[in-house]
Structures are given as C-alpha cells and as structure tokens.
Specification:
Strand content: 5-15%
Number of strands: 4
Largest sheet: 4 strands, mixed
Structural class: alpha/beta
Distance between the termini: 41 Å
Number of domains: 1
Helix content: 55-70%
Amino acid sequence: MKKMKAKLQFILDKLYDERMIYQMLKSQKSNKDLKYQSKVTGINFDIAKKIAKASNPLEVRILIKEIVKQRYEQNLKKIEKSKYNYQKSWDEINNNFFCRLTELTDFQPQYEKYYCVISAFHPGISSWGGNKIARKFGFEPLKQRKITAHEIIISHFFSLIDKHYPKVKDDQQVWQLAEIYAFVITSKDNIMKSFWPWDKSAVDKGHNYSQLIPLQRELTSVLLKKGLKDFIKIGLMKTKSRLKVG
C-alpha cells in the first residue's frame, strides 16, 4: 500500500463556526451541559437556550450569523495571528506526528490534507472520520499542539474502525474508545510526548469527560500491555455493556 504523506493546514472558516454553534448547542443533553457549552463558547446563556430549542438551523440562522459576524469583527487580527502561529508550531512536528500515528495504529492517514479551523468559539472539535477539526484562537502556539493532535487522532481512530470493523455502527461506542485512545497515547507514548514535553497533565486523573475515566483506567493497561487490537476488542465489549446499562 502506498504511503500517504498527510499534512495539517490551519484555516479560517466562518461558515463552519456557524454550523458548529448550532450542532454543539443542540446536542447538549441537559441544562448543565448547555450552561457549560455556553461558557466555553462565550455565547450568552439565554441566546444559547434559544439556539438549542430551535427545531432546525434555519430558525436561528440570522441570529447565529450575527453572533459570528460580531465575534470575528472583534477578534479577526487575533484569529489570523493564531492561524499563522499555530501553523508554524505544528509544521515542526507534522511529519513525525503522522508517522508515529501510523506506526501506533498500523493504519495510514486517510487524507492527504487535514484542516484545522481557527474557531472564534470552540476550544476543540474533532471529526468522526472526516478531515476537518477546530481549535479556538488565542492559545499559546506550542501548547496548542497536544489538543490539536488529540482531535486528529479521534478522526483517525474513527476511520480505522470504519475500515477494519465495519459491523460496528454505534458512534457512541467508537467515540468513547477514540477519546480514551487519544488521551492515552498523547500522554503515555514517549515519542508523542516529545512533541509537547512541557505538558505534565495526568489525564487518567481528570479531564472534561469524567464519565470516561473509570473505563479509561481499565483500558489503558490493556492498550499498553496488549496493544491496539485487544484495546479495541475489549473496549467494544465494555462500551456495549455500559451503553445497555445506561
């Protein structure tokens, strides 16, 4: 199989920000989750509630466009600066990162080009098998690398499952395993860690998805001791049983 040389390109995409505002707010399952999403995106909670209650994006299209327009007008220079600085920082690790990801998964990147939208709202968004992710502007260029990598790994993991485990159709199962896999290899693999040596966070003790931590602790040892295939096999069984209980 011909090796694909993948490249991550940072871009601006206002329409993407508009679509993701609706999708992210609409997908929140509780008032608490909506408040959290409102806080991290910097969108007024009352406005966030209105968007989340809309039955389709057309109902709030004008409202969302105005929110995005104002945010971009206020921060365009900062967004453009982040685009330049993130790209410069990432280019230093791009080839080695994708090479290591291929080695760890025994699976080639499925796209020659991956895109990272410099968002005016969203700290980080992955793509479930696609080639477009997002990172918010304003982070320190070196320190943004790890979460950016995390979002790419999730996309890569979804592509791997789609290719080699076509019978697995539950996106929530795959998402749980993808998140855990990304958390583990960005924090435990020595080569990956060399791309962000300043980061000492202990992701097995806490992160945004606290509901995954018990399962993450179980599966970390499986991945590190037995490898990716066993991680996926055991992980699929455990996530399936947990989803049934839930």
